[in-house]
Automatic annotation (TrEMBL):
Entries under Pfam families matching the protein: ABC_tran
Entry-linked SUPFAM superfamilies: P-loop containing nucleoside triphosphate hydrolases
Keywords: Antibiotic resistance, ATP-binding, Nucleotide-binding, Transport
Protein name in UniProt: ABC-2 type transport system ATP-binding protein
GO annotation terms (biological process): response to antibiotic
Entry GO terms, CC: plasma membrane
Keyword ATP-binding part of the UniProt annotation: yes
Molecular function GO terms recorded: ATP binding; ATP hydrolysis activity
UniProt xrefs under CDD domains: ABC_DR_subfamily_A
Length: 300
């Protein structure tokens, strides 16, 4: 079986809030997937259901063809959840031993130390370790059962730039061995640098899903910036090849599905157009466009 997990029509409602609203997602073994979205998009709730920590109101979760609990118990699935609690007075070495005792075929302590890069501080108390090292300890614990699928909820949220880089360097060995990772992040650069595939969530729904380059190219297309005297957003938005239009002062910005068509239509309809620039929109623009609440900013 080549599938690591499959989410089908997941829904989770908290009183008035529909935190997850019909999420379907299938991830193949060996994929490294970034789950992106603004605060409150439903990433953590989706991850909780994937891990069996919350039960869906509707829909189903399959991990390696079975229930998440079975995959967790066998060690095939492991997770690093946001700010997972670590006792202050115990050492990483003690925690690794405790975790090893829970699995039938755990990695050796030496392997865990080496893979997570915690050997140097494994015998210091957790309460004395800085955030970057604590995060590597959490990573070490997630690795102990030698999982095939690792779920990380904002693994680098509290880390500075150097600690973030170190964390991803220690992850490299895991992903290079062809194992599967899903990580939630707010950092677009992390998605671009470390993921093969990006899944963008907004208001509990998946709004884009594909390779980083596909999302960048297909979703965001290109941007045209120009001075278009007298043009209104509603007139610009209906031009051929234009997906969205924004007018700010004398500057106009068009998000395009086809910039060649759009530029012809713009110059034909508004011949007085000047100061034209055409640029490739980055993942950042795609992300902002797709997750923006302003209708004129959203590329559809
Ligand atoms: N236990 C809960 N009770 C009530 N509402 C909740 C609960 N958990 C999440 N929510 C709400 O569900 C929505 C989705 O939250 P969720 O934490 O899944 O989003 P997120 O994308 O992970 O956000 P963040 O990036 O801030 O972690 C939010 O509106 C949140 O306030």
């Amino acid at each position: 079986m080549t599938e690591a997990f499959r989410l089908t029509g997941l829904v989770k409602q908290f009183k008035q809030v529909r935190a997850v609203d019909g999420v379907s997602l299938a991830v193949r073994r060996g994929e490294v997937v970034a789950l992106l979205g603004p605060n409150g998009a439903g990433k953590s709730t989706t991850i909780d259901m994937l891990l069996g920590l919350a039960s869906p109101d509707e829909g189903s979760v399959q991990v390696f063809g079975g229930a998440p609990r079975a995959a967790l118990d066998s060690g095939r699935l492991a997770a690093m959840v946001q700010n997972g609690f670590l006792l202050r007075d115990v050492t990483p070495a003690e925690l690794v031993e405790l975790h090893r005792s829970m699995f039938r075929n755990p990695l050796s302590a030496k392997e865990v130390y080496g893979r997570a890069g915690i050997g140097e501080f494994a015998r210091r108390r957790c309460g004395k370790l800085p955030g970057g090292q604590l995060q590597r300890v959490r990573y070490a614990l997630a690795l102990t059962g030698d999982p095939e699928l690792l779920i990380l909820d904002e693994p680098t949220a509290a880390l500075d730039v150097d600690a973030r880089r170190e964390f991803w360097a220690s992850m490299h060995e895991f992903t290079a061995a062809g194992r599967t990772v899903l990580f939630a992040t707010h950092y677009l650069a992390e998605a671009e640098d470390y993921a093969d595939r990006v899944v963008l969530m907004r208001h509990g729904k998946v709004v884009a899903d594909g390779a980083v380059d596909e999302v960048r190219a297909n979703v965001s297309g290109r941007l045209i910036r120009a001075v278009v005297p007298g043009a209104r957003e509603e007139d610009l938005a209906v031009l051929d090849g234009v997906a969205s239009a924004r007018v700010q002062g004398d500057r106009t910005e068009l998000g395009c599905t086809d910039s060649d068509l759009a530029i012809r239509a713009l110059l034909t309809t508004f011949p007085q157009t000047s100061s034209i620039e055409i640029t490739s929109a980055g993942l950042e623009e795609a992300f902002l466009a797709l997750t923006s609440d302003e209708p004129q900013g959203a590329l559809r």
